[in-house]
Structures are given as structure tokens and as C-alpha cells.
């Protein structure tokens, strides 16, 4: 089973967008997937409540930070959404569960500075240094051809972390989320550009290490 944690202590960077759509990808591929939500507001689980029962199932995985439990036996994938301000016990739980961590990051100077300490801490984690946890960064709401995208690349390369891809700023995510949907739940022609941008991200997650 693979556990993919989506994390960034900076708020408003698109963690829930990444988490829900990644879970939607696994579900559409016919795999058994659960979505966990470490945020006290439980926005990812609220999104699951909106999801039509006729769509490929995404299970709810309840993770209590005080008494963390392993996901259901036999589960193929778990995606963990995390809150803004992630630190302390919740961060330790997330890293203990993770095979991979995706850090969504908007390529503005302020967002990069706000995330720098977190990325540096991840890079120093023993499990990361030993290769037990892989870290990848996704540029959010950005055109890959812009100077700001180049700035993000330079910053992340300095930390020796891969940039998995860039997701454009589009209302598709907002409109789909309002109905409990993901990019993989609608006609491909409607979201073709977005699916193309997701390709390197899902390829990276499919290579996730397996935990017992």
C-alpha cells in the first residue's frame, strides 16, 4: 500500500485540490483508495460528502492525531490532506504514515519564503535522507513558461527536490469540487489540458514505495 501526504504549512496553496484529485485519479483507475484529513475543518471529508454515490468510490479514513490508526487492511492507496500551520504531533503523524510527500507551492516570493523552512526540515528528516520518504513539489496556479515558474525551479533545485509539474490557474477545479467531482469524473474533452499537466504527477505517485 502507498500513502501519499499532501502538505505545506502555508495556507491557501491548493492542498485539498491536490489531495481530492489525486484520490479521484486512483479511484477512476479502479484502485481501492481512501482519503484522510488531518485538518480540524475536515474540508476534504466535507468534499467526500458531496461526491455522488454513482462515481468510483473514495473511502473516508479517519485519522485521530491523538490515537493514530493504520488504514484499512488491503487498501491500495491512501491520500492524506493536511492543515495550514502543520507542525508538532500532526506533522510527525503525517511523516510516520508517508511513503511520499507532495508539497504544493505557488511560485511567488512570499509563498516560497513561507515554505522554505518546511522544505528544509523535510530534507533533513532521517526517513527522507535514507530514501524511505520521497518529496516532490508541485507548482500551483502557474504557467510553466513564466519567470515565476523558473524562480520556483531554481529554489527547489537548491534543496535537491524535484518539481513534479505545474497546474494552471483554472476554474475547473473550483467548479468540480463544488459537486464532489475530480478531473477524472467528467468528459476528458472538458479538462484535457489539466489532465496533461497531471501526467507527470501521477507517474511519480505510482512509483510510491509500499509499506506493509
Question: Could you give a short description of this structure?
Answer:
With 212 residues, the chain is of the alpha/beta class.
Question: How does this structure look, described?
Answer:
The chain has a seven-stranded parallel sheet, with helices on both faces. Helix 6 links the parallel strand 6 and strand 7. The chain has one domain: Rossmann fold (3-Layer(aba) Sandwich). By secondary structure, the protein is an alpha/beta fold. It is built from eight helices and seven strands, in the order βαβαββαβααβαβαα. It comes from Paraburkholderia monticola. This is Cobyrinic acid a,c-diamide synthase. Pfam families: CbiA (PF01656). InterPro entries: CobQ/CobB/MinD/ParA_Nub-bd_dom (IPR002586), DNA_Partitioning_ATPase (IPR050678), P-loop_NTPase (IPR027417).
Amino acid at each position: 500500500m502507498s500513502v501519499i501526504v499532501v502538505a505545506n504549512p502555508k495556507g491557501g496553496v491548493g492542498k485539498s485540490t491536490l489531495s481530492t484529485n489525486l484520490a479521484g485519479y486512483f479511484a477512476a483507475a479502479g484502485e481501492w483508495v481512501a482519503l484522510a484529513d488531518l485538518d480540524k475543518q475536515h474540508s476534504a471529508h466535507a468534499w467526500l460528502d458531496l461526491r455522488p454515490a454513482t462515481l468510483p468510490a473514495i473511502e473516508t479514513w479517519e485519522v485521530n492525531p491523538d490515537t493514530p490508526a493504520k488504514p484499512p487492511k488491503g487498501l491500495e492507496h491512501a491520500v492524506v490532506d493536511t492543515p495550514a500551520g502543520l507542525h508538532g504531533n500532526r506533522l510527525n503523524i503525517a511523516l510516520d504514515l508517508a511513503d511520499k510527500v507532495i508539497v504544493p507551492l505557488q511560485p511567488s516570493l512570499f509563498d516560497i519564503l513561507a515554505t522554505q523552512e518546511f522544505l528544509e526540515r523535510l530534507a533533513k528528516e532521517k526517513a527522507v535522507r535514507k530514501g524511505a520518504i520521497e518529496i516532490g513539489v508541485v507548482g500551483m496556479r502557474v504557467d510553466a513558461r513564466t519567470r515565476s515558474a523558473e524562480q520556483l525551479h531554481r529554489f527547489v533545485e537548491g534543496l535537491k527536490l524535484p518539481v513534479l509539474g505545474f497546474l494552471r490557474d483554472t476554474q475547473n477545479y473550483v467548479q468540480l469540487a463544488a459537486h464532489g467531482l475530480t478531473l477524472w469524473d467528467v468528459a476528458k474533452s472538458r479538462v484535457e489540458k489539466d489532465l496533461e499537466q497531471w501526467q507527470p504527477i501521477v507517474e511519480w505517485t505510482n512509483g510510491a514505495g509500499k509499506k506493509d
